[in-house]
């Protein structure tokens, strides 16, 4: 079975150090009078040294906190709002057919996008940066509208199983590093305990090693705050339905997060069996017309503007979304004309739903 997730984060090793010391003492035959004469001089030297060290320490502290005496704030990851250094972005296209469940590594994604595909089924786009699992999957093929969605991440590494021949040029010219079993055979493997095509898995660390210039996580428009906005509507559960698939998010007061379900069944992580959860859920209403090039495939339009519903802290909030271009991120603001609508720090799921 696929491996269990592991974090890529590491802490810098400390460097041992010492301070040379001496042992003062008088020469042979030194008497009490000589020692008494030396004491004031030694005491003065010690006091001066201590004052100098205190001054250096104060200056170092001022340099560290900008001179205002405050402790410097930890760097906030732009995808989660939690402390963390932005790592390179790895995007993986995941199967969500019932035979593909449970997923591996999905619980480690910073962002999860859910989109409608052919036949009214669904697929997932998992975005990793702060944490990278040992294994992720099952991996499936890319779609035309994925290129529009991924452009906001700069030049990410993009893992997928394959793509239609007509999209090969588009993929090669897109601002990303395409990774698939043909270009990176050692980065993928098949789980013989599952049936194809729902058994292809990615080794994320090898994928990132093959794309060393992948863009680190950057601001994509999301804002975070531990405190929920005022005037939310209590919400115990919300479901988004496609013709042949559904996503349900149920608020858990005990876990203080949203429990994820696929097609009415609890979504769990392979190996551990833990329930998949989200700290924030966004239902983003978009247009999904048939692709002009592939009429059977919905084209999920993520550039533009429209309405959204944000779920956090057991409440729902009416919102508006705006993404001016494919290279820009998406901003979410309060529907009443207020400012940015902050998400709960942590994992966010964004489900694309048909514009109402």
UniProtKB/TrEMBL annotation:
Gene3D superfamilies: YerB-like. Residues 15-32 have a biased composition (Gly residues). Residues 86-213, 239-350 form the DUF3048 domain. It comes from the Bacteria. Residues 94-106 have a biased composition (Basic and acidic residues). Residues 1-34, 58-107, 317-347 are annotated as: Disordered. Residues 324-333 have a biased composition (Polar residues). This is DUF3048 domain-containing protein.
């Amino acid at each position: 079975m696929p491996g269990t997730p592991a974090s890529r984060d590491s802490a810098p090793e400390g460097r041992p150090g010492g301070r040379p010391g001496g042992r003062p003492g008088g020469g042979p035959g030194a008497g009490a009078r000589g020692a008494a004469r030396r004491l004031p001089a030694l005491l003065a030297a010690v006091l001066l040294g201590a004052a100098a060290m205190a001054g250096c320490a104060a200056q170092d502290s001022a340099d560290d906190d900008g001179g205002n005496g405050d402790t410097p704030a930890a760097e906030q990851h732009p995808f989660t709002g939690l402390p963390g250094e932005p790592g390179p972005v790895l995007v993986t296209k995941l199967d969500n057919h019932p035979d593909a469940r449970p997923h591996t590594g999905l619980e480690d994604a910073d962002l999860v996008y859910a989109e409608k595909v052919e036949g009214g089924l669904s697929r997932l786009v998992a975005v990793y940066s702060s944490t990278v699992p040992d294994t992720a999957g099952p991996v499936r093929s890319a779609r035309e509208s994925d290129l529009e969605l991924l452009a906001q991440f700069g030049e990410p590494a993009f893992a997928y199983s394959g793509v239609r021949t007509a999209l090969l040029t588009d993929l090669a010219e897109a601002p990303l590093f395409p990774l698939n079993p043909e270009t990176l055979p050692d980065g993928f493997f098949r789980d013989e305990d599952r049936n194809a095509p729902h058994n292809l898995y990615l080794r994320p660390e090898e994928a990132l090693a093959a794309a060393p210039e992948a863009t680190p996580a950057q601001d994509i428009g999301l804002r975070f705050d531990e405190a929920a906005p005022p005037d939310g509507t209590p919400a115990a559960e919300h479901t988004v339905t496609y013709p042949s698939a559904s996503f349900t998010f149920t608020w858990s007061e005990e876990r203080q997060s949203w429990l994820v379900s696929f097609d009415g069944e609890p979504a769990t992580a392979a190996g551990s069996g833990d329930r998949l959860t989200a700290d924030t859920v966004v239902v983003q209403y978009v247009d999904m017309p048939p692709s002009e090039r592939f009429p059977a495939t919905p084209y999920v339009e993520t550039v533009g503007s429209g309405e959204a519903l944000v779920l956090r802290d057991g409440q729902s909030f009416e919102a508006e979304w705006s993404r001016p271009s494919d290279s820009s991120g998406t901003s979410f603001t309060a529907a009443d004309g207020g400012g940015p609508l902050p998400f709960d720090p942590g994992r966010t799921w964004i489900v694309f739903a048909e514009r109402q």
